[in-house]
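[INFO] parsing input record for Nuclease (SNase domain protein)
[DEBUG] input buffer:
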Amino acid sequence: MVTGGVVTQVTDGDTVVLDSGLVVRLIGTQAPKLPLGREGYPTWPLAPEAKIALETMVLNKPVRLGYGGEEVDRYERALAHVFVEGAEGEIWAQREMVAKGLARVYSFPDNRKCLDQLFAAEGQARMAGLGIWRDPYYSVRAADRPESFIDRAGHYELIEGRVLLADQRSGRVYLNFGRFWKEDFTAVIEAPALRLFKADDIDPVSLEGALVRIRGWVDDRDGPRIEITHPEQIEVLATQ
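[DEBUG] output buffer:
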C-alpha cells in the first residue's frame, strides 16, 4: 500500500486523476464506457451514472493506492486499487462500484489480486438486479444460443453454459459448448494461459460437463469465441 493523493478529476467510472497528475485505472473492474473524444464510439448504458457515482465517492478526497500486480499500463496509467475514507471507515472504490452494479469484474493475467471479493460483490449485485444488471446490454448470454450474441464480436461479455467437450490439441485447450465448433460458442486457452492454470493446479480439461460462466472479449473466428488468458475468466458454477 502506498500513499496516493487527492483526486482532482474523474474521467469515467473506472479512471481518476490525482493532484500529482497521475492517472489511475481502477484495476479489476470495468465500468460502462464514455466516448471521451473517440469519434463514433458509443456511450455505453449507465456510463454517465457510473462516472457520477465514482465522483461522489472520491472527487476532491485523499485516496490511498494499493498494487496487486503490474503497476503501470502501456498508457502510463497506474493500475491500482483505490481506497478512500468514508463516514463508516475506509471504502474500497472498486468493490463499492461493483456492489452498486456500476462496474463488473475485469481481470488480467498479470493483475489477479482480490478478485474473489470483487466476484462476490458482483454476484450479489447481479442477483439483486442493480445498475447494469437491469440492462440487456450487460446480460449474461446463454452459451447454447450463439446466434443471440454472434453480433457482440468486439464486446466484453459474460457467457454461461455447460461445457460439452474439453479437448487439448496443438498446445491449447478448447472448451466447446456445442456440437458444431464452427458455429457454436468456444472458449480457447492458449499455452501461456495453460501455464497459469497449471501453477494454480487447475486442469481445464476436467471442466468437461461443468456448468461455467466465461468472461472476456468475443471474437467471431469460426463462430463466437473468447480467448482465456488466465483462470479467473472461468467461474465454475456446478461440476455436474
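[INFO] The chain has a mean pLDDT of 94.
[INFO] shutting down worker
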